[in-house]
Amino acid sequence: MKYISTRGQAPVLSFEEAMLTGLARDGGLYVPETIPTLDKAEIAALAGLSYEETAFRIMRPYIGDTFTDAEFRDIIAKAYAGFGHTARAPMVQLDSNHFLLELFHGPTLAFKDFAMQLIGQLFQAALKRNGSRVTIVGATSGDTGSAAIEAFKGLDAVDVFILFPNGRVSEVQRRQMTTPAEANVHALAVEGHFDDCQARVKDMFNDFDFRDGVKLAGVNSINWARVLAQVVYYFYSAVALGAPDRKISFTVPTGNFGDIFAGYIAKRMGLPIDRLVIATNQNDILHRCLTTGEYRPDGVIPSISPSMDIQVSSNFERALFYAYGQDGAAVSQLMDELKNGGFTVSQGALQALQELFDSGNCSEAETSATITDMFATTGELMCPHTAVAVKVANEHRKTDVPMITLSTAHPAKFPAAVKAATGVHPDLPARMADLYERSERVTEIGNDLAALESLIRERIQN
Ligand SMILES: Cc1ncc(COP(=O)(O)O)c(C=O)c1O
Ligand SMILES: N[C@@H](CCOP(=O)(O)O)C(=O)O
């Protein structure tokens, strides 16, 4: 299996190279040259398998000869051993044909753990074998950063720097990033919002002196391995509800487009997904784009679902690549236009996107009202990101197709919004009960590329 860039100008890489590389050298994102498919019998055979075995069968075709089957099974087993639920991704039923897929039973209580725990193991195995070390730099609106720090803390061959928007993540998210004592992890509170953090990370990848000098690697969803790991739970949940003999729809709370793009890959692999519904909060650029074809970021507005406070949605580039018939030059041009304010999706590409995706948005008041209503009618306490998706899912459901809504974070990561909506303070699991007492270690820094690069250089030398 080979990996190609969405902008068509970067070297073609193996799985291991793409995983350790992050952003392509032409600024694009790596995607597999071809998307493997499973036939109906192979999908049916997933019924009743463990999460780990499902993960092995779905991901195996993508990893080429990077690992033997035995090594890969071992990596998967280690990745999910620390999850707090034996099903890893259990489902709860909200009503006759609406289901919540709980993706928050990993170590940091968000869906990011599914990919990050796996990538931690993949990096460790690959770097040990190569005898090399890397510097991971990531941007986060809260959950990617905590999951990355948890997955990579204490590893010999890796330094991890996480840029988060100062004052714009929840206290639990911040503390998950700032309280680990391991010397190889560094939480950087950046002046600005998530889009600034993500832009600086991409700037670092595009500064080849820096990139090659520190051996930069990325664990945001620019990394194909992140997306791949997330494909698994689409199969796992759909098969539990009767796929491939019945169609299933998914609604996904969306910001950087990595999670829903994994759903797109699942569909391309043969999973009978009826609709993929993009749910956005008040930062609804993706919903506007899907409706009008215009993609023009106009400033992030802080919300009670802060992990989705994003306007420059990184993986949308991958969706555009396919909507434009894998035309790297066309994608490159759109991304150049984005630097100058935005772009208009061509009529043909917009039609291709609309054939695959539905979309909707959710205001702050609607988010709170959904948390309140769901607690009153079903007893489920849900995080604000999940509530955004439940509201949008309810607008797109069909009576004859089950809807699975992705529940992406534990309500205890966002206690203020949940308590305000329900009167109930959601408790952290016992293993995290002392999170509020642990001491924090964080560096405040401006939104300045040179300052960030010099800080990273200094820290990795010491
Ligand atoms: C809790 C939560 N829900 C939803 C999202 C959006 O996911 P994506 O960025 O993959 O679209 C995020 C951030 O990634 C998140 O942390
Ligand atoms: N919501 C994310 C934003 C980064 O997304 P990623 O999937 O590209 O890592 C976060 O929680 O940090």
UniProtKB/TrEMBL annotation:
Pathway: Amino-acid biosynthesis; L-threonine biosynthesis; L-threonine from L-aspartate: step 5/5. GO terms for biological process: threonine biosynthetic process. Keywords: Amino-acid biosynthesis, Lyase, Pyridoxal phosphate, Threonine biosynthesis. It catalyses: O-phospho-L-homoserine + H2O = L-threonine + phosphate. It holds the Pfam family PALP. The keyword Amino-acid biosynthesis applies. Residues 99-332 form the Tryptophan synthase beta chain-like PALP domain. Gene3D superfamilies: 3.40.50.1100, Threonine synthase, N-terminal domain. One of its GO terms (molecular function) is threonine synthase activity. Its EC number is 4.2.3.1. The modification N6-(pyridoxal phosphate)lysine is found at residue 112. SUPFAM superfamilies: Tryptophan synthase beta subunit-like PLP-dependent enzymes. PANTHER family: THREONINE SYNTHASE FAMILY MEMBER, THREONINE SYNTHASE-LIKE 2. Belongs to the threonine synthase family. This is Threonine synthase.
